[in-house]
Amino acid sequence: MSNIKYSAEHEWVQDNGDGTVLIGITDFAQEQLGDLVFVEMPELGTEISKGEEISVIESVKAASDLFAPVDGTVIEVNESLDDEPELINEDAMANWIIKVELSDSKDLDDLMNEDAYNQLTEE
Length: 123
Fold this sequence. Notes:
- By secondary structure, this protein is α+β, with helices and mostly antiparallel strands.
- The protein has one domain: CATH 2.40.50.100.
- It is built from four helices and nine strands.
- It has helices spanning 27-33, 80-83, 87-90, 114-122, and strands at 4-6, 11-15, 20-25, 36-39, 47-48, 53-59, 63-67, 72-77, 98-102.
- The protein has a six-stranded antiparallel β-sheet.
- Strand 6 and strand 7 (63-67) form a beta hairpin.
- The two termini are 22 Å apart.
């Protein structure tokens, strides 16, 4: 989908077209992590900065940081993941983690399209 971009840290960012984005981890990332057991959510209103750790995702075999692919403010978290983090294993692209109000939509220009991301994961 053309409104989805990717980071080198394996996050996907869906542009909602209204100054907000949904952020989740890619299918590649959830495959690498294995069965997810916990997703730590940032607090609503948290200011996030590109490249900073914003959350921790734990699986049965590892814990991995979620890094902010854009600058902005957390305006919503996917509460269904509190009880069912495995939803990400079932469909990583359908189960976003946080919704962010962008500080600057130009941040999206720094992210990869699907072709570039697929090249990264094949290397």
